[in-house]
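Lab notebook, bench 4. Still working through the backlog of constructs that have no structural model yet. Next entry is a single chain of 92 residues. Request: give me the structure tokens for it.
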Amino acid sequence: MRASRHWDERRVMSMTEVEHRFGESVKPCPFCNCPVAGLWVGPSPHMTCADCGADGPTFEGSRELLEFRQHKAVKAWNGSMPRQPVFKPGVI
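Model written out:
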């Protein structure tokens, strides 16, 4: 599968760089199954798919180090973080 989006290397960390920095391989996109995903390295780090453009959850915060939030974004993309329960009105 070939990625259709071209990233600015200063803003999106490649999969190989993510694996090198955090020691975790990046799983394919859960939406389109594209094997190419990168880590957005801005102030709100999140994983993004190179093909369909899907984004993982963002991790904002000023108390946590940026590298820690980037690692959380990779873990969330790979599905290894517990999900917060979502309560809908009228269901409780």
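Notes after review: The longest strand covers residues 37-40. The two ends are 43 Å apart (CA to CA). Flag for follow-up if needed.
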